[in-house]
Amino acid sequence: MTSKNTKIFIISIIIMVTISISAVLVLQNQNSNSIVFPKIDRYPDPADYSFIGDSLGPEFPSYNPNSSEQWQVNVRSCDLSGYNLSDREYDLMHANFDNKTVWPEILPEAFNPEEIMELGKNPGFDSRTLHQQGITGKGVGIAIIDQCLLVNHQEYYDRVKLYEEVGIGNVIASMHGCALASIAAGETVGIAPEADLYFMAVQFWETVENGGEYTTIYDYKHVARAIDRILEINKVLPEDRKIRVICVAKGWSSGEMGYDEVEASIRKAMKQGIFFVNSNLDRHYQYPFHGLGRHPLSDPNNFTEYEAGLWWQNALANVPGRVLVPMDSRTTASPTGIGDYVFYRAGGWSWAIPYIAGAYALACQVDPAITPARFLEIAIETGVPLFYQGYNIGKIINPNHIIVSIQIP
Predict the structure, then answer these.
(1) Per-residue pLDDT tens for 215-243?
(2) How far apart are the first and last CA of the chain?
(3) Considering only CA atoms, which of 230, 249, 94 is closest in space to residue 183?
(4) Which class in CATH covers the domain with range 120-407?
(5) Domain range summary for the chain, segments of one domain joined by +
(6) What is the pLDDT of residues 320-364, one digit of tens each?
């Protein structure tokens, strides 16, 4: 054997041994149920909302402020080039649209969809000043339990540490999951743009057939399983990279399927010091919250530009101890493509819940010892009072003041 052949033989043996050792390590990892991050079980396909245009009809939809319907002017991914919208400013200012929406050449002078989209990306309240100071939620884990995620969207893909599915088949990406992930931890949209993101996709409901009739029944057993899984994952994470908050944009009531299981899982998470944020925040922490409204072209950093959210402006009450966070007029990641965005004129609590989770991640970065109860206390103490139509409806969250309060010994 020549010297050259000997070298090639030795190198080949080294490569084979290395591959064998690596295979053993992978097998050992699997047997010990440890996780190599990032762990992505599946990449759901993008959604296609072009069908929305088929339901518009010859007349462009109008907005009725007295209607309880939220999405009255829904023109996401629609071709509107054939409509005359020159005098439809009011309706357009209440529209949900995305970057796939095709606009006519002539629009009302005051309606600028590009500007509205950009303003909607801003988390508001000068939170980007905190980001410039390095307060971004870096090193803090946020776990979201929701519908399927477009995992590789540019807003958050490089920070997705885990994507798993519980009780879900081959389902496409949802608008809901993408919105939550980007509001909490999106690079340009999120309040905590460098937080670690752990996402559990679940099925919140079961469809039951009875004599040809189909009924949707909510069942939260999958949520309970997802919470338990997050707690397992947290055990293997380093102390300085733990999941500190779990976010579920949903609520449940006693008597619903899976209620006892999910409440038991929540208690376990809270016992471990994890902040659990969902629609039942007042039940778990005695702190109610609500979402704020904002005109699409107003300044997201100006506290005086905010009001009660569109859907609850007719149900006001004096709740001075309520935490108020951005909800309406938000731009989020869209499930239609990895670089797509969508503007939602009216939001729901689903848009407020991930904001609270992200704000807590900022606090955890600054003070790893902070607790959920202390964070909520500071949010109220430092919040900006909002009086709307004669009602004291709560305190607007002030991320900068929260961080200053935490930093002061």
Answers:
(1) 888 899 999 999 999 999 999 999 999 99
(2) 73
(3) 249
(4) alpha beta
(5) 120-407
(6) 999 999 999 999 999 999 999 999 999 999 999 999 999 999 999
- Once rounded to an integer, what is the mean pLDDT over residues 128-142? 98
Instruction: For residue 38, say if its preceding peptide bond is cis, omega within 30 degrees of 0.
Output: yes
CA atoms within 13 A on the CB side of 156: 34
∠ Cα 128 134 137 (to 5°): 85
Count Cβ atoms below 10 Å from residue 12 Cβ, excluding itself.
10
Distance CA 325, CA 272 (A): 26
Distances from the Cα of 401 to the Cαs of 116, 124, 206, in angstroms? 27, 13, 43
Q: How many Å apart are CA 322 and CA 109, to the nearest integer?
A: 38
Return the structure tokens found at 200: 């559990």
How does residue 70 score in pLDDT terms, banded at 50, 70 and 90? confident
* Those residues with Cβ within 8 angstroms of residue 67's Cβ, 6 or more apart along the chain or in another chain: none
Tokens of 189: 């949209």
Tokens 């909490």 correspond to 184
